[in-house]
Amino acid sequence: MSLERTLAIVKPDAVAAGQAGRILALIEERGFRILGLGLTRLRTEQAQGFYAVHRERPFFDGLVRFMTEGPVIVAVLEAEDAVKKWRDTMGATNPAHAAEGTIRKRFAQSIERNAVHGSDSIENARIEVGFFFSAADLI
Ligand code: GDP
Question: Does ligand 1 come within 6 angstroms of the Cβ of 62?
């Protein structure tokens, strides 16, 4: 294991539902250190860029609409094995398949409106952190 960073997003559904505080509390309880934190609203081009790997998928336009519909909270998390640890804390993409105790099991409404995002590799974490934060922003 090594000390890693990952990008977490509390998506518009969870922010609108007033669940952001509980999700941030869970992040702290699970032992992540928050190195950077912000509230922002994605512009369409930003959401398209962030999810560019999915641009050929049938759900892409809906995903971009969803991610731009309201504010999101973006956070840089640090922990041993942070990428996998945060993915495990989030649970499966589809909440119907998410394990008990995961954020998506508790808060997600559907495979699209699934409350949180987490980087899926160390390399993508580096790219995604850079999407929202400059090195000087991180404590
Ligand atoms: P993640 O890494 O678990 O967030 O999942 P992916 O990278 O595969 O997908 C990115 C996001 O696109 C998901 O978190 C969902 O919000 C959305 N998404 C993924 N698959 C589907 C799908 O089959 N249908 C719809 N409507 N949205 C999806």
Answer: yes
